[in-house]
Design goal:
With 497 residues, the protein is an alpha+beta fold. Helix content is 33%, strand content 22%. The mean pLDDT is 94.
């Protein structure tokens, strides 16, 4: 039996390959960033060929660092940035356009047109999603409408669509055009009940079904790797959208368990078991995971567009810090935000507002406010947005979460984690293994080949590293949150049409 399982973790800003042992510990890792393209205000793109090249490099790099060969790897899993849309020629393999990233807002007008008199909930009963620039379906339509010859090639069955998992699978297996249920559930084109493409919605959205990949479970054999050469011959047996992968890696495998990932954006998921819980408070109903032939498990999700990327913006656009880690030290030079609030609605607001007309704002500025206050406001924006989502989750589920598991790049920021516990009023718990997206994909892959015997082994691998208890007075907590909600109202109705 091979000793390890590998995962390709393809995220919004970088691609990693991580190798795990049976205890879920990291044996080796390699990572490459890719460029972010901003052709216009509100537009965000990636180069799919750069992502594929980086995937090949990190796979070779991770194995080389641990002096491993393909024969040492039992299986490979994929976790990927969701909703990001790639369309390519099925014969040449060439993308017809850059990937349109999940954060991209160019389809706002199209979403309004598709909503018509029914409004943004037009497809929500079947898909669990509101019509939003966030999801893949409208992005496909934009490419077909705006790129010369694309629609004709699609109707001639020459083009493939995929989220990034599908793009990688296609390249790694020599042409398998597949996706899993978690990624398919983020397109606005999949029926949550049947777990199949809704042909009526696809037709109304102007997307030929011949472009769409076949939908599989999250844990089964997808194919055998032909490229990259470092992993040739290893089966790909697990695929999960990155936030569902993080939920799996956090061992939130029972009804009522939740996690919050702090990455480019923030994503809180609550396991609702085999029941689809319909949100009345601005959350998404989504597939959490499906293990082989077992029944699908669903989740409520609160998606926040801008959290970690706000820190990057402070670094790259304003030059206030030279590295993301510096923000904690800068924010710690002051005791509070000085009355300043930063609502980072760079491409509108996602959960629980779903307002594509919003744009970012800093409010409450006075001559008293300095760089430290702004740094603190940037961090607090993440915590306040997570509070909005947790409140909605409690209201939808009818239960009150008593603690929150957290993961992602920002959870190393202890000032932020303490403020998060304070503003939520519940303990925040960081696991020993923080790379939960990659770990979740590895678990899904390993389960399919018997590397792990079942989910009880996954639960047994999870362990807490640090716990933050709320220390803020309740009245202070609510006063700060009231000011945040007032700040949010200042961002609305900024974009016309």
């Amino acid at each position: 039996m091979s000793q390890y399982v590998a995962a390709i973790d393809q995220g919004t800003t970088s691609t990693r390959c991580m190798v795990f042992d049976h205890d879920g510990r990291v044996v080796s890792s390699d990572q490459r960033e890719h460029r972010q393209h901003f052709p216009q205000a509100g537009w965000v793109e990636h180069d799919p060929l750069e992502i594929w090249a980086n995937t090949q490099e990190v796979a070779a790099g991770a194995l080389a660092k641990a002096e491993l060969r393909a024969s040492d790897i039992a299986a490979v899993g994929i976790a990927n940035q969701r909703e990001t849309t790639v369309v390519w020629d099925r014969f040449s393999g060439e993308p017809v356009h850059n990937a349109i990233v999940w954060q991209d807002a160019r389809t706002a007008r199209l979403c309004t047109e598709l909503a018509g008199e029914a409004g943004p909930t037009r497809y929500q009963a079947g898909t669990g999603l509101p019509l939003s620039t966030y999801f893949s379906g409208p992005k496909i339509r934009w490419i077909l409408d705006r790129i010369d010859g694309a629609r004709q090639r699609a109707e001639a069955r020459r083009l493939c669509f995929g989220t990034v998992d599908t793009w990688l699978l296609w390249n790694m297996t020599g042409g398998a055009h597949l996706t899993d249920v978690t990624n398919a559930s983020r397109t606005l084109l999949m029926d949550l009940q049947t777990l199949s493409w809704d042909t009526a919605i696809a037709e109304e959205m102007g997307v030929p079904t011949s472009m769409l990949p076949r939908i599989r479970s999250s844990s089964e054999v997808y194919g055998t790797i032909t490229e990259p050469a470092a992993l040739a011959g290893v089966p790909i047996t697990g695929v999960l959208g990155d936030q569902q992968a993080a939920t799996f890696g956090q061992a939130c495998l029972s009804l009522g368990e939740a996690k919050n990932t702090y990455g480019t954006g923030n994503f809180m998921l609550l396991n609702t078991g085999t029941e689809q819980v319909r949100s009345r408070h601005g959350l998404l109903t989504t597939v959490c995971y499906k293990i082989g032939p077992q029944d699908p498990v669903y989740a409520l999700e609160g998606s926040i567009a801008v959290t970690g990327s706000l820190v990057q913006w402070l670094r790259d656009n304003l030059g206030m810090i030279s590295s993301a880690a510096e923000i904690e030290h800068l924010a710690a030079t002051v005791e509070d935000n000085g009355g300043a609030y930063f609502v980072p609605a760079f491409s509108g607001l996602f959960a629980p507002h779903w307002r594509s007309d919003a744009r970012g704002a800093i409010v409450g500025l006075t001559r008293y406010v300095n760089r430290g206050h702004l740094a603190r406001a940037v961090l607090e924006a993440t915590a306040f947005q997570s509070r909005e989502v947790l409140d909605a989750m409690n209201a939808d589920s009818g239960a009150t979460l008593t603690s929150l598991k957290v993961d992602g790049g920002m959870v190393g920021n202890e000032l932020l984690m303490q403020f998060q516990a304070d503003i939520l009023g519940v303990p925040v718990i960081r696991p020993v293994i923080n790379e939960t997206s990659a770990l979740g994909a590895a678990y899904a892959a390993g389960l399919a080949v018997g590397y792990w015997s079942g989910t009880e082994e996954i639960r047994g691998n999870w362990a807490a590293d640090r716990r933050w208890e709320p220390a803020m007075a309740p009245q202070r907590r609510e006063d700060l949150y009231d000011q945040w909600r007032k700040a949010v109202t200042r961002t609305l109705n900024w974009v016309d049409g």
